[in-house]
Amino acid sequence: MKKENKTLIILASIERQIFLIREKKVMLDSDLARLYQVSVKRLNEQVKRNIKRFPIDFMFQLNKEETNNLKSQIATSSLGHGGKRKLPYVFTERINF
Question: What are the extents of the domains in the chain?
Answer without folding.
Answer: 3-92
